[in-house]
Amino acid sequence: MKNKQKIKFTKEQKQEMINLIKEYFYQERDEDLGDLAADMILTFFIEKLAPGIYNQGVEDAYAFMSDKLQDVFEIQMNTDI
After folding, report:
1. Which Pfam family is an annotated match for this chain, by its short name (predicted)?
2. For the whole model, what pTM was predicted?
3. Where are the domains of the chain?
4. Residue 22 and residue 35: Cα distance in Å, rounded?
5. For residue 76, with 0-12 CB atoms within 10 Å meaning exposed, 13-18 middle and 19 or more buried, which class applies?
């Protein structure tokens, strides 16, 4: 079985995200969300959606670094030492 690590945030980061969710719902849907409802939405996103987004970021970083390493190897192969 895979060891799943939880994505962790500080209290301040989590409160800022809750505030952003509340602000979004108020601005876009004219709904006044409480802290509990916004926290539940945030928890859903963190548990269900964030791992996929994180993994995509890791894959993008890997592809970027692989390209840069290939550039370094090409420079090395083209140098006469």
Report:
1. DUF2164
2. 0.70
3. 11-77
4. 8
5. exposed
